[in-house]
Amino acid sequence: MSGKDALLLFNYDWDESAFAAVLPRERTHHAGFDLFSFPSNAQLIGFDLDRFAARLARRHPRIGAVVSHHEQFGALAAALVAEKLGLPGTPPAAVIACQHKIHARRVMQEVAPEANVAFSLLPVEYGQEIPAALPGGLDYPVFVKPVKAAFSVLAKTAHSQAELQAHTRFGWRELWVIKRLVAPFDGVARRLLPGIEPAHRLLLEQPTHLVRPNARQFNLDGWVFGGEARALGVVDSVMYPGTQAFMRFDYPSRLNPQVQARALEVAQRFLRRVGFSHGMFNMEFFYCEQSDVLTVIEFNPRLASQLADLYLRVDGVNAHAMSLALARGEPAESAPRLKPAAGAASSFVFRCFAPGQEPRAPTAAAQAALQHAFPDALLMPMPKTGHSLDRDYTWLGSHRYGVMHLGGKDEHDLRERCERASALLGWPAPYARAGGPKPSAPTPAPMLWEDAVSAAA
């Protein structure tokens, strides 16, 4: 039956399992490739987003929806396909405006300067000499990140000119990979937003985590329908002590509801300014209670897929079903709701900060024991060895060896369940312990694009 099928782009990991539970297999079509596996990621060679979208539009002229929550290529590809086929979707120019970080900062300065940070574009290409004085009145330490990137790649706090210089010098292989990952976006950006800066640059920002060390980080997820933004929920990001490495994502948030409402109001101003009239979004913030300052970290024009399961557990709201409804032009609220199964839920991120001290991967018997004792547990082991493991420590300062989702009656019950579940796996529970040793890497180093793309090669 034409018009009912959905095209899912770059549908992997959290999205793959979530959409499989929402959509009958015979009603879906798939396209895209896995950036983290070889030989799939060899498709980066010569990849062009405009050609990719045009080919899909010719191949699937009668689909009823196109969806992707993939940050690097999928969100923009889905927007381009939807535009070509006249389907509901986020305008491609709005996706560009969100993902082009220097452009997004400038928009924030126009619409919500009180929630922005001091920023500037680094006026040199990779490998060129860093000027003695930073532009925009910035000074060291400074937070540096690519104008277009994902997965926190190349994001780092530089404490000196020498450190920033070293951070911007790459070998020819690294530069080739960076170009291949940024060029598809850059081509579309220059077509849709004439005069925009090349995306092959680095953005400098005032480091909020150092200026306001007590600021808490959180995610605002939501959607836009009929030009109006609505909140799906707010999830707290909890770091390993002394690091910028995620330890947990907790829901519901402990953040004051008034601050949550302020965050949505800032999001609405930004969304309207960039023409984001339809679709799911995720916005990351810092909030400092002492100064009552709300600061935007970045805007993502798609659902934060890892967090969707938390809303399902606590609110009975299926964010993936909502995104599919939006892609069909229906209100997100039309998606079926389920009975909530928990009063609190978390995405637990297991990390090791000391090479050679990684816990063993859980045996099949241990995983079976976990599922027997905790039927609601969602476990994703992520073991690495050899060069892949070494690269984690070199570029990230830690090794993420697994993620587990659990629910509980409340946050206290959730912690007790997590500790028991972690013990079954032989892993330390992701909770800070008073007096316990702190990780040895207070500021994780960046992961190169080369590492992200060739980790499984």
The CATH architecture of the largest domain can be named as 2-Layer Sandwich
Kindly provide the radius of gyration, computed on alpha-carbon positions and rounded to a whole number of angstroms. Answer: 21 Å
Please report the number of helical segments: 15
Largest sheet: 8 strands, antiparallel
> Strand content of the residues, in percent?
15-25%
Write the SSE topology.
Layout: E1 6-9, H1 14-22, E2 28-31, H2 49-59, E3 65-67, H3 74-85, H4 92-99, H5 101-111, E4 119-121, E5 142-146, E6 156-158, H6 161-167, H7 172-192, E7 202-205, H8 208-211, E8 216-225, E9 228-239, E10 246-251, H9 257-274, E11 279-288, E12 293-300, H10 305-315, H11 319-327, E13 344-352, H12 364-373, E14 378-381, H13 386-396, E15 399-408, H14 411-425, H15 449-454
Helix pairs in contact: 2-3, 4-7
Verbal overview:
The protein has 457 residues and is an alpha+beta fold. The chain contains 15 helices and 15 strands. The strands form 3 sheets. Strands 12-11-8-9-10-13-15-14 form an 8-stranded antiparallel β-sheet, sandwiched between helices. Helix 2 packs across helix 3 and helix 4 (92-99) packs across helix 7. Mean pLDDT is 89; it is low at 434-457.
